Structure formats: structure tokens, C-alpha cells
Amino acid sequence: MKFDGYLKVRIGEAAELKPTTYSLRHSKVFNKNSLAMDPYIVVKVDDYKIGQTHTKQKTTRPTFNEEFCVNVRGGQALELAAFHETPIGYDDFVANAVVQLEDLLKFSAMNETYEGWLDLEPEGKVYVFISLTGSFTDGKTPPPLTPSHKQTPNTTADSQDLNSNRNA
């Protein structure tokens, strides 16, 4: 099913974030034993990025309290991906969660909002508030009209009315 409407996502906090082995590659070189990271979260609907939180420094339990709002047309999935910001090169992937928008209604007993913890893979969780205002469609488009269903204007009646108005 596809969602058409207004989506509001509030990222509260994340917990139990674990640096990946790839993100720890510099800790051995620089003799750093800290598991602290500089996390941020990217928010996507399907493959479209709708926002990114600010980076929180040296923590595995960041508090974001940031909100993202967007009008969605034909949306199916919400993705939250946590990254570790690195000073050089690409940022390191930490974890993510992908939730089908229609499943959010099941989790929230058919309300238009969901509030709670979403588990991240491979580890961690994020506290979110998600509000959906709109409707779900099955994604099927109606069949096109065949010529027998089209209404054609009655041109003879229209021309008779014009002629009668001229004579009056």
C-alpha cells in the first residue's frame, strides 16, 4: 500500500549504539580505547532523503529532539539510518531501521501516530514519534476509460440552441 499525505517524524534519542569494527579502525592507530562516537541520523522515505539530525559529539546515547515534516505521494517505507561522522573520508554506517508506513498503523492500533522505540540493525534503538495524516491506497491505478465510456458532447443540440437564440 502507498501513503499519500503529510508525514511528521520526530527523532527523540538513540540508545545502545555500537561502533562497527570498521568505525574503530583508527582507534588502534591512534591508541584510542574510547567507544564513543559522533552519531547522526538520516531520515528517508523510500529512497528520498527528507532530513538529517545534527551530529552529537562523543556519545553512544545521543539526544536529538529534531523534527522533519514532508508531504508524501506514493510513499511506502520510512528509513532511519545512524552514521558516525568521521573527520576524513566517508562517514561510517552504524545501524538502520526500515519500517513500512502501513505497518506503523498496525503497531499503533490503527491510530495516525506511532510513538516508541524502533530497533536498529545490527544494534541499537531509536525513540521516535511518527504522525501520518492522509490516506493509503493499494497502489493500483484505475483502468483507462474505453471509448464506450467517454461522454461526447451533443454538438447537434448545441448548434440548435445557438440557432434558436439567434432567431429569438
TrEMBL record:
Skewed-composition ranges (Polar residues): 148-168
Record-annotated C2 domain positions: 1-118
InterPro entries given in the database record: C2_dom (IPR000008), C2_domain_sf (IPR035892)
PROSITE patterns: C2 (PS50004)
Chain residue ranges for the region called Disordered: 138-168
Name assigned to this protein: C2 domain-containing protein
Source organism: Paramormyrops kingsleyae
